[in-house]
Design a protein that fits this description.
211 residues; Rossmann fold; 7-stranded mixed beta sheet; two-stranded antiparallel sheet; 6 helices; globular
């Protein structure tokens, strides 16, 4: 049977609490710090890719950001955040979609954030589709903050194989359109008292995207 990523992630969020997955953390402190340090306008267009159940949108709203889009393949994950946010959920633009095939407005976003989506793309063609969407959707001069499992991260997550990255590997994967501005690793403590190495890379779109 052909693997269907949407079915997989819907099942994960139907059968587990969002707090009982290995990547869970109450707040994405490193992502939030890096976003805040960019000094973007509070009107900046921000998209959180794979952020369905994440609390990052909550923290961005509290910080005063006004134009937040959350994209996730799982309606169940999005429901977690909508239920948590209550009436504030109306302040977020929600997209239930696959980041590799979604149609996004060109040159629209000032910041693309992704914690733990890209490393699940094990097929080169899926990675290229993702990069194409990123390159088209991000404004010239816009930022891409991408966090993947690092060189010493796990080989599997949520029952799926992943791709581990060094900063150089990830830079090569995104191509010459993106310039690597900074990177660091974080040792994430899972809800199960184990650890995972995450690599955070901040890129800037420095050229017109050509696919």
């Amino acid at each position: 049977m052909m693997f269907d990523p949407k079915t997989h992630w819907e099942n994960i969020y139907k059968t587990k609490s969002s707090k009982d997955v290995s990547w869970y953390t109450p707040h994405l402190e490193e992502s939030f710090r890096m976003i805040r340090d960019l000094g973007l306008s509070k009107d900046a267009e921000i998209i959180d890719v794979g952020g369905g159940a994440s609390t990052l949108p909550d923290d961005l709203l509290t910080e005063g950001y006004k134009n937040i889009t959350v994209l996730d393949i799982s309606s169940e994950a999005i429901k977690v955040s909508k239920d948590r946010l209550g009436n504030k959920a109306n302040l977020i633009h929600w997209l239930e979609a696959d980041a590799t095939i979604v149609s996004l407005e060109p040159n629209h976003y000032d910041l693309w954030h992704d914690r733990a989506v890209f490393h699940f793309l094990t097929k080169p063609e899926d990675r290229q589709k993702y990069v194409n969407n990123l390159g088209k959707a991000l404004k010239p001069g816009g930022y891409a903050l991408i966090a993947t499992f690092g060189p010493n991260g796990p080989l599997k997550c949520s029952g799926l194989g992943i791709v581990r990255y060094s900063a150089e590997n990830l830079r090569q994967g995104l191509g010459e359109t993106f310039e690597l501005e900074k990177h660091f690793t974080e040792i994430h403590k899972t809800p199960f008292d184990t650890t995972q190495e995450f690599l955070y890379c901040l890129f800037r779109k420095v050229d017109a995207f050509k696919n």
